[in-house]
Automatic annotation (TrEMBL):
Acyl-ACP thioesterase-like C-terminal domain: residues covered: 156-245
Entry annotated with the keyword Transit peptide: yes
Species this protein is from: Periweissella fabaria
UniProt similarity note: Belongs to the acyl-ACP thioesterase family.
Protein name, entry field: Acyl-ACP thioesterase
UniProt keyword terms in alphabetical order: Fatty acid biosynthesis, Fatty acid metabolism, Hydrolase, Lipid biosynthesis, Lipid metabolism, Transit peptide
Location of the Acyl-ACP thioesterase N-terminal hotdog domain: 4-132
Length: 248
């Protein structure tokens, strides 16, 4: 049986929204990770305890589904649950709901634990997962990989420099920063006339401080699907598939 669901309430404030006044994509993930961190702290397995053992969580993949984005001033209920794990991987679910229980956002994620100095995967301590009451499995429930960019077709490219403030306490680029790099190249006109409904992102190689990032994308003929990749030099760091609906 999966572990208990951790719940917290949050009021959306203006600086968490984009130009539409709705909760921005990076902030959706920031709120999810906030709930995850608070869940760990409540169980005595927070960032301080992990870092004391020179370990930390890194996300490998997210699968996001949006029913409706909340707006500034809305009260949301953030929920998270450690679903299952094996020695090296853990599956965690997140939800954003209205106080009445209407679903707004659902996220499925796969995490791994790393040695903070060597930046290599390590086994997840059994005591840690016991605290979360997650289900131990031989093989975790995988998320399908996002469709890759067609290397035989041209891409639109935009470049970014990795700044000091892009790095978080796990000593790598904050996960939410990747979403800025993904969607910013699409441009204001597209983003103001389309609403994101699904995002599947898979992280391959960490982006480090001081690197130069290339964000590439391709778009479907009907402009309802975009395919993305983030590269540093010739290294593929991240790939993603985004599905959209046109605003009426």
């Amino acid at each position: 049986m999966s572990g208990d669901i951790f719940t917290q309430e949050h009021t959306i404030v203006y600086y968490e929204t984009d130009q539409t006044g709705k909760l921005s994509l990076p902030m959706i993930f920031n709120l999810a990770i906030l709930a995850s961190a608070n869940h760990g702290a409540a169980l005595g397995q927070g960032e301080e305890e992990l870092h004391a053992n020179n370990t930390g969580w890194v996300v490998l993949q997210y699968d996001l589904h949006i029913t409706k984005r909340p707006q500034a001033g809305d009260v949301v209920i953030i929920k998270t649950q450690a679903q299952e794990y094996n020695p090296y991987f853990a599956v965690r679910n997140f939800w954003l709901e209205t106080p009445a229980g209407d679903k707004l956002v659902a996220i499925k994620s796969v995490f791994a634990m790393i040695d903070m100095e060597q930046r290599k995967m390590v086994r997840i301590p059994q005591s840690l997962m016991d605290a979360y009451e997650a289900t131990k499995v031989r093989h975790i429930e995988k998320i399908p990989a996002p469709q890759a960019i067609d290397i035989n077709q041209p891409t639109v490219k935009k470049e970014y420099h990795v700044r000091y403030l892009d790095i978080d306490s796990n000593k790598h680029v904050n996960n939410a920063q990747y979403f800025d790099w993904l969607i910013d190249p699409l441009g204001a006109e597209f983003l103001q006339t389309h609403e994101l409904v699904n995002l599947n992102i898979k992280y391959a190689t960490e982006v480090r401080y001081g690197q130069e990032v290339e964000s590439h994308y391709q778009i479907s003929d009907d402009q309802l699907v975009t395919w993305h990749q983030i590269k540093t030099d010739d290294t593929l760091n991240t790939q993603a598939e985004l599905k959209w609906r046109a605003n009426n």
